[in-house]
Amino acid sequence: MKALMMQQPLLVSSLLTHAERHHGEQEIVSKRVEGDVHRYRFRDFAQRARQMANALAELGVLRGDRVGTLAWNGYRHMELYYAVSGSGAVLHTLNPRLHLDQLVYMIEHAEDRVLFFDIDLLPIVEAIAARLASPIIFVAMTDRAHVPTSIALTAAVLCYEDLIGTSDDHFEWPQFDENAASSLCYTSGTTGNPKGVLYSHRSTVLHTFAAALPDALNCSAWDTILPVVPMFHVNAWGLPYVACMIGARLVFPGPWLKGDALYELIEAERVTMSAGVPTVWQGLLAHVNDQQLSFSSMRRTVIGGAACPPAMIAELQEVHCVDVIHAWGMTELSPLGTVGSLKPHQVSMSPEERLAVQARQGRAVFGVDMKIVDADGEEMPWDGITTGELMVRGPWVIDMYFRGAEAGPNRDGWFPTGDIARIDADGFMQITDRAKDVIKSGGEWISSIEIEHVASLHPEVASAACIAARHHKWDERPLLLVVKKPGSTATADELLAFFDGKVARWCKPDAVVFMDAIPLGATGKVLKNKLREQFRDYLLTA
Ligand code: ADP
């Protein structure tokens, strides 16, 4: 029997019309590349998004066309999130920290028709323009006075504010199939060419519902959210959509992500929640501790993208009273998969036990189904011990890569994540490694993340990365790379001794190398492949 309910497609534009109608007074605050702070309300944002939708139509952007952005977190980027997707085109966010070859590859692969960019990124845009085979339209995201004059760009650069200023603010958001593409994000492609993940309106709206839930990112109209995670890193983990769905106040940091700048913004704007990768919080915590500061408004923060060291969770919660929401996800998952919110019976655990649970990547949010499998694809038990490859499925999980191989990445309806994990009886999943980072020592697997977690507990360790180095007898053995805190006198032997009793003897690193800095990739994650190359033969030759 056919149900008798309204058929309304789940469209990104509906988030904006809701925000305008029900939270029009809510504020969006942005630090701008022009150097000042910009403030306006959701109702102004909605009006300008409609003007931009008209401007896009004037530029000849049609349904399904790809529109690129090379921009930091700010209100104009937010307007494009809605103007582009809302009018039926596809928002393609590009990460300015990527290598030029990759940016050119992505723009050509996606066939972007327009590229919107923040003016401080002009040198990158000029380099891209010189390499593109077909012409595209460039739009500088600023006002007329700040539009850069570029001799290198043969095509004229359009001005964002001119486009808005000359466009009508009447625009009916079109209604269309919710399975149409809304945005496109490429994985950073540490191996091979980047691969495009093409989200739909439906997958985005469903992901937004799930992300906002209390046991997920736990957002409400009472929040002031600071997305530190960039809008080019998997749609800032969905926060630009969540904020519209629930009417939260938004604070955008622009390109200023160092500890001091973030702290000042958090305090000045009374931010209540934030989200970012662990390396960002490392910088923020170092600043707060150096200057003996405290947080007066921030209550919780989402940490994901890489494993959050338990020492960081403990410090944020116990010293700074900021709750940590440890989350796991991937570009291929829009990105949310699991969140480490405790269950009621876990609250009575000892602080150590609770921290151990929080260091795991958490339980599946509704919509994501997961399992772990062995090399033959057999499902492994949820005993908290057995590890296997993590497989996921759900309405916001990728089916096929954009213009990818016919068969797509999936195996029997499940997406193989490339992560190795265990799952406990409470359904808490713990990533032990990415398959390519695991250390294979004489037939046994050693978790590099576990070694890094222990190292992070040492009081003189600022950051640590564990990689496989070649070994004459065991094939691979763990090598620990450490950046010490300023003034530390800790020796390699002391650090190695710190592992005694904390990990099985055969998992203890063979050596420690001190470094000034650990190389990070375009999304702030440790570049393990680069380190592996650099230290491949270290144990054979040291
Ligand atoms: P890329 O694959 O280009 O790094 P993603 O941002 O999609 O881009 O990275 C997804 C991967 O990041 C996951 O497969 C996993 O290995 C890692 N990851 C994400 N969140 C966590 C987390 N909380 N703990 C450990 N690893 C994580």
From TrEMBL:
It comes from the Bacteria. The keyword Lyase does not apply. Residues 450-525 form the AMP-binding enzyme C-terminal domain. One of its GO terms (biological process) is fatty acid metabolic process. One of its GO terms (molecular function) is ligase activity. Belongs to the ATP-dependent AMP-binding enzyme family. PANTHER family: ACYL-ACTIVATING ENZYME, BUTANOATE--COA LIGASE AAE1-RELATED. NCBIfam families: PRK06187.1 (NF004837), PRK07008.1 (NF005426). This is Long-chain-fatty-acid--CoA ligase. The lineage of its organism: Bacteria, Pseudomonadati, Pseudomonadota, Betaproteobacteria, Burkholderiales.
